[in-house]
Design goal:
It is built from 16 helices and 23 strands. The chain has 561 residues and is α/β, with parallel strands linked by helices. It binds 1-O-alpha-D-glucopyranosyl-D-fructose and calcium ion.
Length: 561
């Protein structure tokens, strides 16, 4: 089966007739990330599943998305909620079976929605047969699929590299007495990508899934596969791009698929190496400069700093310019690891709806492929947990133990978890005001946010001025206008503390976008913004950008110039 694009592919034209050819279907499509355990439960076991997703495809088709990024549903012990895979070619029974998966691919495709799978190949589960064989026999051919060191220096591990989930990145295997490398949990041993037989296994698995008709891959921490621990190199290793080009030739070339590499280490220059024309590596990367820039130097995500909009605007502008005509941007506020967009960048309180719409507007009118994280389209907010017992995430629970042992107070750690724990986006999707937000008829694996009675799909989708309808409008505009997909980006008012304003230009077509990213009424400044009275293309209402005109809290507008 080919991977023919699931959405129509046609030359785009703009207002003045400038013909711009979209070089790929995913340049006009919008992605939607589903965290399967928390999306929709069809069998009442409290865990979302694939049949539950199939039941919501009409909802996703109504939203207008072009593809789903499906977080892992493969067989897994679920130490890291599926990012610890023990069989790449089998479905975890808690999510369903391979018939369900094939049905999801077919049912989505019939709605012109692609299914992009999560490719987690920096590591496997320690329950993967490869690792079990590697541990049981030093001479096993699978031993070198992983990274081993014989002895630990004085401090008890072969080097001082630490794991993302806390502790050393080396754990001792009791069977062989040697140490193996793991950048995440000890149950997630890193794969040795310098082993060509391992790489061939991964390419074969990728082709197996692509031949089933999936629309591509999101590639988990792909910037780590070139690691050289003995040299202290973890991200962006010297062989990384060679491995990606080899992977492209072996599995992706000739297929109309989308690939997005998660690359926490990516810089604008490096991103052009991943997605630049003729690079034949990936379609785009997820970069995180707008996330990590506002983390604490010492405590990282556990002490997040307030958003500084001039800095955030400059980061987005840097990425827009770096990849314009020289690669491709992904655009996202959140995912299954990040706090809810409204909670982190907007307002959870009285301005929740307007801040959600403003965040959607500025993101979706930039150049790149936007990604919506499940629930973002109805302005779901952080979990609001009040006890550590409500958390499920291995990273959060590890750092709770580690930071308290370092002397951090429970209250301080808890404040960090409430702001930035990965469980914030993992609370169940809020479909209705029914018990458990209509997510499950059983007991949910993680608590539903208590606000579901008034914050849910049923309520918001019915609001013509709601968040869901704003996302629908933005997705449609992207499809209709080449200037949104391919226009130049010029940041306006770069130093303004709260107005995020920019112009998009393609040929004679010019779009002006302005958003007040603050809780205060903010006046249009005397200069720096074109003056106009025009119809807002988002609402059809007349708007003015005369100096002195006041924009309400989180007001956002877009007009043709
Ligand atoms: O995340 C990579 C990763 O580094 C993040 O977990 C990051 O460390 C964290 O969000 C910072 O708070 C990917 C997946 O998205 C994540 O869910 C997995 O846990 C991880 O890789 C291991 O597969
Ligand atoms: Ca279920």
């Amino acid at each position: 089966m080919t991977n023919k694009a699931v959405t129509s592919q046609s030359p785009a034209s703009s207002h003045d007739g400038t013909i711009v050819i979209d070089s790929a279907w995913w340049q006009s499509a919008v992605g939607y990330q589903i965290y399967p355990a928390s999306f929709a439960d069809s069998n009442g076991d409290g865990i979302g599943d694939i049949p539950g997703i199939i039941g919501k495809l009409d909802y996703l088709a109504d939203l207008g998305i072009g593809f789903i990024w499906l977080s892992p549903v493969y067989t897994s012990p679920m130490v890291d909620n599926g990012y610890d895979i023990s069989d790449y070619r089998a479905i975890n029974p808690i999510f369903g079976n391979m018939d369900d998966m094939d049905r999801l691919i077919a049912e989505a495709r019939s709605r012109k929605i692609g299914v992009v799978m999560d490719l987690v190949v920096n590591h496997t589960s320690n329950q993967h047969p490869w690792f079990i064989a590697a541990c049981s026999d030093r001479d096993s051919p699978f031993r070198d699929y992983y990274i081993w060191r014989k002895d630990a220096p004085a401090n008890g591990s072969p080097s001082d590299i630490t794991a993302s989930f806390g502790g050393s990145a080396w754990s001792r295997d009791p069977q062989s007495g040697e140490y193996y490398f793991h950048l995440f949990a000890p149950q997630q041993p890193d794969l040795n990508w310098s082993n060509s037989a391992l790489r061939a296994e991964i390419h074969a698995m990728m082709n197996w899934w692509l031949d089933k008709g999936i629309a591509g891959f999101r590639m988990d921490v792909i910037d780590l596969i070139g690691k050289r621990p003995e040299e202290g190199i973890v991200a962006d290793g010297p062989d990384l791009h060679r491995y990606l080009r080899e992977m492209h030739e072996a599995a992706l070339a000739g297929r109309e698929v989308v690939t997005v590499g998660e690359a926490w280490s990516a810089t604008p220059d490096a991103a052009a190496l991943y997605s630049g024309p003729e690079r034949r590596e990936v379609s785009m990367v997820f970069q995180f400069s707008h996330v990590t820039r506002f983390w604490d130097e010492r405590f990282g995500k556990w002490k997040p700093r307030p958003i500084d909009w001039p800095i955030l605007k400059s980061l987005f502008a840097e990425w827009q310019h770096a990849l314009h005509g020289n690669g491709w941007n992904s655009l996202f506020w959140g995912n299954h690891d990040l706090p809810r967009a409204v909670s982190r960048y907007g307002d959870e309180g009285e301005h929740r709806l307007s801040s959600a719409k403003a965040l959607a507007t500025i993101l979706h009118l930039m150049e790149g492929t936007p990604y919506i994280y499940q629930g973002e389209e109805i302005s779901m907010i952080n979990a609001g947990f009040t006890s550590i017992d409500q958390y499920r995430d291995v990273e959060t629970l590890n750092f709770h133990r580690i930071q308290l042992a370092m002397g951090v107070s429970e209250a301080d750690f808890f404040a960090g978890a409430q702001a930035n724990s990965r469980d914030n986006p993992r609370t169940p999707m809020q479909w209705s005001s029914k018990p458990n937000a209509g997510f499950t008829s059983g007991t949910p694996w993680i608590a539903v946010n208590r606000n579901y009675e008034w914050l849910n799909v049923e309520q918001d989708r019915a609001d013509p001025d709601g968040v869901f309808q704003r996302y629908r409008r933005l997705i449609a505009l992207r499809c209709q206008h080449a200037v949104i997909r391919h226009g130049d980006f010029e940041l306006l008012l770069p130093d303004h503390p709260s107005l995020f304003a920019f112009e998009r230009k393609l040929g004679a077509e010019k779009l002006l976008v302005i958003a007040n990213m603050s809780r205060q009424e903010t006046a249009i400044p005397p200069s720096g913004i074109p003056q106009l009275h025009a119809s807002d293309i988002l609402t059809g209402r007349m708007v003015s950008t005369e100096p002195g005109i006041k924009l309400g809290p989180f007001a956002a507008m877009a007009t043709w110039l």
